[in-house]
Amino acid sequence: VQKEIKRGQAQINEMRQKERLILDRLDQMELQLQLIRDNLEKRRRERTLLRREVAEKRKRLKQLDHELEQLRALLAQRLEALYKFGRHAYLNVLASAVDVSGFQHQWVYLRAVAEQDSALIGQFIKRQQEEEKLTQALASREEELGRLVAKIGQEVEELEKVKREQVALLQDIHNQEEMYQNYVTELAAVSRELKNRIEELQRKTGNKRSV
């Protein structure tokens, strides 16, 4: 009986040691979960800021497109006027000068108009390219953040699943410990009962000898 009691106690100690290991693992997992939750929240804030930035950029680019559309209409009118008055309409402008000073003035004017048109066209093309590049970059970044948030959410779900399994295992260990504790208690009761019987038999034997 004493051997059974010792064996049961050893099993209880083993269960308690396993329980401590499980608790340590649960603590570590909780820290990991908190880190992932914090990272997830951080990424979500980044995504919110990015979406706001995207909206502002698109609004600005939309306004810019409107301005450039007006510019394109103006340039189209100029081209139409040049076509209407002939391919050499600028020569007519120069020819309208009455003297050398007027000629120089008209030349400076035409050159300024040409440079302005060229600069505006260049600006239009540059802004169009900038819009396309910016839109693609922001869309790519938002897609990347979306994948990251989904990945972190999946990791949280997996860790929560493992944590539930660990808690179930801990409950099982508690149940086993309780079972072994009851077992040891029963063995101790049996041991006491046997001891009492032995003492009773010894007393009876001693009484018979004295008689």
Automatic annotation (TrEMBL):
Reply yes or no: does the keyword Coiled coil apply: yes
* Coiled coil region boundaries: 12-81, 156-204
Q: Which Gene3D superfamilies match?
A: 6.10.250.3150
Arranged from A to Z, the UniProt key words for this protein are:
Coiled coil
Q: What is this protein called?
A: Uncharacterized protein
Supply the source organism for this entry. Answer: marine sediment metagenome
